[in-house]
């Protein structure tokens, strides 16, 4: 069989993205909107999106250049004192599609996150009852735990208990990076799923130190050993409906990345679908890309599939070293590389 030269996919969605706000939002929203029909928008702004003020944030996203036809799905940032009634009302009003659990201080702008999941048990009980998904940044923050073990430790210390205590709650283990997370999700009931980023399909932790310190390969959860990358690849390309596309595209201005204390986050939005296509093809699973990118996510969330299609063609795409943005630059994932599939647009 000859390799295909053109791919037609149902238009994909991004089930995890950081669109930021202000000038940065204006620059980055279009990169997501040109590929994805919908996106689950992360709420870790300053201040975090904890109230129905999210409706105004949603309007700012829709007003950004290139956002025509794009549907942002908003998430509520859970805090220790989140009110179950307010969460349910926000969901019923269509303002919040899901709620995000950041363990306090786990990552960028998570200082207001949850200090102990027991504090939000009443909220989780409500979410379970109304069918509202819980999106989980699955890392413990205990400084005594090695950074590379924080995801695995979260399973034992927190996630296993959530699955036991809330057997019907829809939970998404976001941006999985370990074999343990992939196995945990696979073994759990149909209420537990996971998102997978492009970077965790392509890089292992060596990328952080290739010839010197590489801040643009740094994100959280941090990339792990090669065996974990391979396990995450196998899960994503397995055909299991539990794994779906979530880029975790997280832009930071170049000077915030190339710094004595560089921010965590990889800006992968500009070539996201091309990046996933490369990984799936390398795994001999290009025929499973559509389910991962365009079907498994909406089915898990209980939303309709998109009724539009996009095309990719086999053509070399040169990823620029940097992209101008809001008076500074962003370094995209795969900067300086050539990717084998090109996103053409609507099919
Ligand atoms: O690398 C990351 N960047 N991981 C996160 O969890 C947050 C994100 C950000 O907002 O920059
Ligand atoms: Zn994220």
TrEMBL record:
Belongs to the metallo-dependent hydrolases superfamily. DHOase family. Class II DHOase subfamily. Substrate binds at residues 18-20, 44, 137, 220, 252, 264. Pathway: Pyrimidine metabolism; UMP biosynthesis via de novo pathway; (S)-dihydroorotate from bicarbonate: step 3/3. Zn(2+) 2 binds at residues 100, 137, 175. Zn(2+) 1 binds at residues 16, 18, 100, 248. GO terms for cellular component: cytosol. Its cofactor is Zn(2+). Binds 2 Zn(2+) ions per subunit. Homodimer. It holds the Pfam family Amidohydro_1. Residues 14-304 form the Amidohydrolase-related domain. This is Dihydroorotase. Its EC number is 3.5.2.3. Transmembrane segments: none annotated. Signal peptide: none annotated. GO terms for biological process: 'de novo' pyrimidine nucleobase biosynthetic process; 'de novo' UMP biosynthetic process. PROSITE patterns: DIHYDROOROTASE_1, DIHYDROOROTASE_2. Keywords: Hydrolase, Metal-binding, Pyrimidine biosynthesis, Zinc. Catalyzes the reversible cyclization of carbamoyl aspartate to dihydroorotate. It is an enzyme of class 3 (hydrolase).
